[in-house]
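URGENT: need a sanity check before tomorrow's submission.

F., can you look over the LRC46 protein record below? I want to be sure the sequence and structure line up before it goes out.
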Amino acid sequence: TIRLDRENISSIGKLQRLAEIHSLYLQKNQIEKIENLEAFPELRFLCLAGNRIQRVENLQALPHLSTLDLSHNLIQVLDTEELPRSLRILDLAGNECTRQDGYRDLVVAALPQLLQLDSQPVRGNMAEEEVGGGSCSSEEEEEEDVELLHELRIPFSVDKEFFMDLHREMAGRARQRRRLSLEEHRARLQELWERRTRLQGPGKD
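Structure tokens as predicted:
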């Protein structure tokens, strides 16, 4: 997993091949273009929410991509041909393209494996039919898909490990913010006390 959210990144540069990476967090940056992701051929989870992306492109090099979050960008027109057919969870909320006539039907028709679109479950697609009792999947695969359908309805989630990892990270950051805030508060109190002491002079309360 690579986490580079909120780092003021403006572009995705060319990188060496990183085949072991399955999750990439780049939300809340200044990225304007989806590019150079062929360095992550095994990527399953990609979060680019809250950037300045205007087009969906250059994702076909990610054949295993399962979850894609492009919410709150600047995408006005969506080309569904640019979306990997492997997607099961897609979030485009907060983009102008979601206001297109027939937007949801167009996306669902283009992505037969899709289980969730913009935090809403998708009904009647190939993936759901397989979960409902198709003979092509193993029992373990069916169990995983059922869990995906019934438990994971939160953006940025592919499976339990992803959700638990994200939850731990958020909790850790919250604890760190509280600790830093408390330390700053104590330092400020100490500074004010020292100033008061200097102003009062020796021998005064």
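My own read: The first strand starts at residue 2 and ends at 3. The CA atoms of residues 131 and 199 lie 74 Å apart. If you see anything odd, call me.
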